[in-house]
């Protein structure tokens, strides 16, 4: 169901955990709130779930104002990082709990629990206790419990935080598949930018109690609206320079052409590490410099290089590697670097 948050403010003493948040999540959309620790993500989720009453602003679900409604009445499913299953109840009893609370008839409970178990692929685990399951399985039970009553909205607060990488990745895909299939409006919280890029229809980047930018993952990555977003989402080279007559003077690279209509004055330019090329392939590029390799990290399908330009500026490059490619240049070697000016993004000042 459509969720709309308008002008939410929540203060704790002198701290404004939320400093005026506006957010619309469309029906069936998977929206991620991405932000560093302390940016206000959990406080926002609590205000939406009904565990925090905001000082100002409103929360609407399907057009209905629920700002002051008790959590139970909102019909919202939630999954947290620490599974929060009832340890003395079986898996099936855990999943049945929200239905029992709603006093659903026994036959319906049985049917819905079986269906939820099937959806999270734990059909044969109904009689086990939570402690007899792995972390990933427990989190799937928590998910089944959150969706078994057909919630109007699903809230996920760092649900994979305690899991190892492989398990995280398979659960990310599983949750996404399930969410699409059930067309569940979902708000997902993470501080992991890679997870946000993998899972989301849209991402809202939060900092200091405010949404700094909201958009499609590709849009935020390619055209961040501020230095903070450029830095927080993905790896970045942020180059400072001065623009004059459509050209910026950049240390090491010389005059670099800027996009049309760029006013004169200070500019911050974003160049993603994968846009920086090194070695022979730079010969035909209009923006070139020389650098020393400070270190090289081999990552399997790519290598990450930290480079230092002659003027002292450090840059990051990411080189895609095929199995037949020669090894990347080692530490201490001198290399040519270059990029195409169309790969630059001018980061708005402010
Ligand atoms: N009950 C509270 N009392 C006082 N301050 C609080 C309370 N809850 C949150 N805060 C403060 O509000 C700010 C936002 O906290 P919040 O938990 O929403 O951040 P977060 O983005 O979810 O962080 P994390 O990723 O670490 O969970 C922080 O500065 C926090 O210290």
From TrEMBL:
One of its GO terms (molecular function) is ATP hydrolysis activity. Gene3D superfamilies: 2.40.50.100, P-loop containing nucleotide triphosphate hydrolases. Residues 3-233 form the ABC transporter domain. Residues 321-340 are annotated as: Disordered. GO terms for biological process: putrescine transport. Keywords: ATP-binding, Cell membrane, Membrane, Nucleotide-binding, Translocase, Transport. It is an enzyme of class 7 (translocase). Its EC number is 7.6.2.11. It catalyses: ATP + H2O + polyamine-[polyamine-binding protein]Side 1 = ADP + phosphate + polyamineSide 2 + [polyamine-binding protein]Side 1. It comes from the Bacteria. One of its GO terms (cellular component) is ATP-binding cassette (ABC) transporter complex. NCBIfam families: potA (TIGR01187). Part of the ABC transporter complex PotABCD involved in spermidine/putrescine import. Responsible for energy coupling to the transport system. Belongs to the ABC transporter superfamily. Spermidine/putrescine importer (TC 3.A.1.11.1) family. The complex is composed of two ATP-binding proteins (PotA), two transmembrane proteins (PotB and PotC) and a solute-binding protein (PotD). This is Spermidine/putrescine import ATP-binding protein PotA. The lineage of its organism: Bacteria, Pseudomonadati, Pseudomonadota, Alphaproteobacteria, Acetobacterales. The gene is potA.
């Amino acid at each position: 169901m459509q969720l709309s948050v308008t002008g939410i403010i929540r203060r704790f003493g002198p701290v404004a955990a939320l400093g005026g948040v506006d957010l619309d999540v469309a029906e069936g959309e998977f929206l991620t709130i991405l932000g560093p620790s302390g940016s206000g993500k959990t406080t926002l989720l609590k205000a939406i779930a009904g565990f925090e009453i905001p000082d100002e602003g409103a929360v609407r679900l399907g057009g209905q104002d629920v700002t002051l409604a008790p959590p139970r009445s909102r019909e919202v499913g939630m999954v947290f990082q620490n599974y929060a299953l009832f340890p003395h109840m079986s898996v099936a009893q855990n999943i049945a709990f929200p239905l029992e609370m709603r006093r659903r008839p026994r036959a319906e409970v049985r049917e819905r629990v079986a269906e939820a178990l099937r959806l999270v692929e734990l059909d044969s685990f109904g009689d086990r206790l939570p402690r007899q399951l792995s972390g990933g399985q427990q989190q799937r039970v928590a998910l089944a419990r959150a969706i078994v009553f057909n919630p109007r909205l699903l809230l996920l607060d760092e649900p994979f935080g305690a899991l190892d990488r492989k398990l995280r990745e398979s659960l990310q895909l599983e949750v996404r598949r399930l969410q699409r299939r059930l067309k569940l409006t979902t708000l997902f919280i993470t501080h992991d930018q890679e997870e946000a890029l993998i899972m989301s229809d849209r991402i809202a980047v939060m900092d200091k109690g405010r949404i700094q930018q909201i958009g499609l993952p590709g849009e935020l990555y390619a055209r961040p609206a501020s230095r903070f977003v450029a830095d927080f989402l993905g790896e970045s080279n942020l180059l400072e320079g001065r623009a004059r007559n459509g050209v910026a003077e950049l240390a090491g690279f010389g005059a670099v052409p800027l996009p049309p209509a760029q006013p004169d004055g200070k500019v911050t330019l974003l160049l993603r590490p994968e846009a920086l090329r090194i070695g022979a392939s730079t010969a035909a590029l209009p923006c070139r410099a020389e650098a020393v390799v400070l270190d090289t990290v081999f990552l399997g399908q790519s290598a990450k290089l930290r480079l230092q330009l002659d003027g002292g500026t450090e840059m990051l490059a990411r080189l895609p590697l095929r199995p037949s490619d020669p090894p990347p240049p080692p530490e201490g070697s001198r290399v040519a670097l270059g990029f195409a000016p169309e790969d630059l993004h001018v980061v708005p000042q402010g």
